[in-house]
Amino acid sequence: MTEHEITAQIVAATDLDALEAVRIALLGKSGSISALLKTLGGMTPEQRQAEGPRINGLRVAATDAIAARKAQLEGAALEARLATERLDMSLPAPATPRGSVHPVSQVMDELAEIFADMGFAVATGPEIEDQWHNFTALNMPETHPARAMHDTFYLEAAGGEEAKVLRTHTSPVQIRTMTSQAPPIRIIAPGRVYRSDSDATHTPMFHQIEGLVVDKGIHLGHLKWTLETFLKAFFERDDIVLRLRPSYFPFTEPSVEVDVGFSIEKGKRVLGGTGGWMELLGSGMVHPRVLRACGIDPDEYSGFAFGVGVDRLAMLKYGMDDLRAFFDGDNRWLKHYGFGALDVPTLSAGVGA
Ligand code: PHE
């Protein structure tokens, strides 16, 4: 085998795969040059002196020729790609899938905007909550029947500890706020809550927004004014009328259920007027026992609290009738009811976006 024969084989390779095959045939484990190199071991010193440089010369020549051919073939492949692959920068951009802001997010932003204007800060708490915050401190001791009413999801208890729960309402954020800051307090707490319940108007996870005000001299009139102002701003109508009914929650005394008046316009139910009433939210004056559990003196301070379903507010304002669709992730629904990224609610532009 001469050097000439070897380079002829290499140059004859017309693509990278063929070149690799030639390389293996020459220099691979059982390649012809490798076989020649192995014969050196069995030679006499004189033979080796003559053959050694020749065989090694073949190896070097083959290696160099392969590298050169490889560079050549790669260059040609790149040229060919550059010649065929063209990007027409004048083409219109392809249609990209575009997301939308979920009505729940939009309504939460609207609520934060309305309450910020009234001087409320936003507070948060964990969705995996301990029973003290979710129940006990809210005047629901272990034997309290209201614990059963909530269809609570209990988590498996870790070694000897009390089981945690998925919070059944945003009210534990009241406790977290009152135990971590001193009055005056003015917060809203929006977030996810969980109850084992499922039908057209209930889903196992839904959203609430809690409101809490604690200060000296707070009374029911402050609660009513706050709710009226909030609902007028939210529904963007001045004829929103509230009806307060006595009710019961363990953590408020007195407790007040709030209905909102509606009327029928063109065969559709719209909020405003007093043609009928629908139940909207729960509220009341913070129970003295709750204040005390948080280290606040009920003889010095009083407060009001309310809790309202965010999903329900969204349904009433934007006209959806099945709550389950909120969480199906159906693109057609999201496209229809979703909001654009720039529909940021502001009071001056109308929070309805
Ligand atoms: N936490 C109550 C519920 O989920 C609502 C509520 C909040 C009632 C605050 C009164 C005061 O039903």
Describe this structure in words.
With 353 residues, this protein is an alpha+beta fold. The protein folds into two domains: 82 residues; 235 residues, BirA Bifunctional Protein, domain 2 (2-Layer Sandwich), CATH 3.30.930. It contains twelve helices and ten strands. Strands 1, 4, 5, 6, 7, 8, 9 and 10 form an eight-stranded mixed beta sheet that branches. Strands 2-3 form a two-stranded antiparallel sheet. The longest helix is centred in the first third of the chain and has 40 residues. The radius of gyration is 38 Å and the shape is elongated. The mean pLDDT is 91.
Key features of this structure:
353 residues; alpha+beta; BirA Bifunctional Protein, domain 2; eight-stranded mixed beta sheet; 20% strand; binds phenylalanine
Helix content: 25-40%
**Residue-averaged pLDDT, rounded?**
91
| Helix and strand composition category | alpha+beta
Identify the overall geometry.
elongated
The CATH architecture category of the largest domain equals 2-Layer Sandwich
- What's the main sheet like? 8 strands, mixed
Give the N-terminus to C-terminus distance in angstroms.
84 Å
Question: What's the CATH first level of the largest domain?
Answer: Alpha Beta
Number of helices: 12
Report Rg.
Answer: 38 Å
Residue stretches low in confidence (pLDDT < 50, at least 5 long) are none
What are the bound molecules? phenylalanine
CATH topology type of the largest domain: BirA Bifunctional Protein, domain 2
